[in-house]
Every structure is written in C-alpha cells, then in structure tokens.
Amino acid sequence: MDEDGTGSINYDEFLDKLRPEMTEDRTAVVLEAFAKLDESGDGMVTLEDVKGNYDASNHPKVVSGEMSEDDVLTRFLGRFEGNTKQDGEVTKEEFLEYYSGVSKSIDEDEYFVEMMKQAWKL
Ligand SMILES: [Ca+2]
Ligand SMILES: [Ca+2]
C-alpha cells in the first residue's frame, strides 16, 4: 500500500485503497444503466421494474418448472445486492458497489464503458 515509498502509509494512500476505484466516466455509465433499469424512477430497482423488460419464461429452470419467473428475476437482482441487504430491492449504492468490484479488474475506461453499453443496451 505504500505507493510513494516513504515507508509509511499516509492517509491519502489509505483512502485510495478503500475508495471504490471508479472514474467519473465509469460512474456515469453505471448510473445510466441504473436509471434504465429503474423504470418507475423511485431510486430502487425491484422486481416490478425488471418484469416488463426481462423475459424469464425461456429460462431452463422456468421451462422445467423448478423456478418461477419471479424467482429467476429475484435471483438476477440479488447479484447486484452483493453481501449487503438482499431484500429484492437494488439501491443505487448496491449497484455502484457491485460495479466498482467489476471495475477493479478492468484497466481501460473505454472498455468498461463499452461493456456497460453493450450489457445494458444503453
Ligand atoms: Ca423502481
Ligand atoms: Ca437491497
């Protein structure tokens, strides 16, 4: 963590390690995706928001009768909730945190933005 090699960790270096590593460009595209997902515009992505846009009826487990479409979509939302409160409602913070995790493994801003655009058809 001692990036400037002074032999001690200063406060800024420490903060940099804690802060989600997302540039403005990345944050902007993540928020754009969130806004698209949040159909109702209440600042949370819930089952109701995604139901109209994501058809889970062809999911293998729905076809086999193991899961309902709602189950599949709830699980899909749960991915973005991470280890925080999994209550079927994805908050902006949860969504940003999920993508800051993804973001860490991607060096180029452009690549990250492009990936988001394709994933969410922005
Ligand atoms: Ca909503
Ligand atoms: Ca939640």
From TrEMBL:
List, alphabetically, the Pfam families matched: EF-hand_7 (PF13499)
Sequence ranges assigned to domain EF-hand in this UniProt record: 1-24, 25-60
Q: Which residues form a coiled coil?
A: none
Sorted UniProt keywords? Calcium, Metal-binding, Repeat
Q: Which GO terms describe its molecular function?
A: calcium ion binding
Q: Which protein are we looking at?
A: Crustacean calcium-binding protein 23
Q: Which organism is it from?
A: Portunus trituberculatus (Swimming crab)
